[in-house]
Amino acid sequence: MSMGCCGQGRATLRQATAASRPGEVPDRTMARVLVRYRAQTPVTIRGVNTGRMYRFDGENAQQHVEAGDAQALLGSRFFVKAD
Question: What is the pTM of this model?
Answer without folding.
Answer: 0.60
